[in-house]
Structures are given as C-alpha cells and as structure tokens.
C-alpha cells in the first residue's frame, strides 16, 4: 500500500515538470535543476554516489571548446556549480570559470579582475568580441598589395597601392599609386 502511494506521488511529481522544447519563455537551467533533483531521488547507494561524483568531475574537467562561445561555456559551468553545491561562493565559481577558459581569453579577463561571475561573463564576452573583431576585420595581405589600417572610431580603412591611376575628384589631375 505504501509503495503505491509513493509511486503515485512520484508519478504526479514527474507530470508537473513540463516538457522542455527550448522556447524563449522556458528556463533551461530551472528545468534541468528540477529534472535532476527528481532523477537523484530514484538513485541510492553506488549509483547515487556516482551521479554526484560525475557532476563534480564534469565541473573539475570542464574546458571551453575551441568553437564554443563564452556564454555557452559560462552557462554550463554555472549550471554544474549549482548542481555540485547550490550554495557555492562566487569565489569558487570564478575559480571554476577561470580553470577551463580558453587561453586566448584568460590573460585579458584576469587583467580585469572580475569579482563576481556576472563580471567574469561581461569581461570574457568583451574580450571574445574584440578577438572576433580583430580576426575578421584585418584583411589578408597579398604580395602585390601594400595595406595600411587606420583604427579610429572602431573602424578600419584599407588603402591599397595598385597599378591603376587614382583620379582626384576635385581636379583633372591623375596620380599613379
């Protein structure tokens, strides 16, 4: 009799968790947290210990992938932090965030000395955007071209010497490059 009551209660609890489809009004972290709490109630002994250790291990070994943007990395690390210890301090969260951050971002984010995970995210996103701007904005040089880049007001201008003459729009003069 007691087993039937427990099974019924668990079944009703599972039914209360809505299906997750990734819609903008759904909170993935909240949904995952609810689902994992329920899953862990079905585990005991070695499987429960494995479940808890697995989450800790995933957090300890989490590295930002080469093609992974900062917001995805940050969201995953913070989710793992909450699963491992819902009361984890900001300092511990920052340690985990730094530990797996791409080396190309590490120095500049460290220089900013963020004091909270939100500050970390802001600085890391800023550095990521600057890296993306630099790598996509600088044109590739060609042996036949001489290029100058003028960085002013966050934009660049390319001047290329070529064999084609340049006309001065204010006169009839023609200059060769």
Automatic annotation (TrEMBL):
Top-level taxonomic group: Eukaryota
Region ranges (Disordered): 158-177
Name of the protein in question: Gag protein
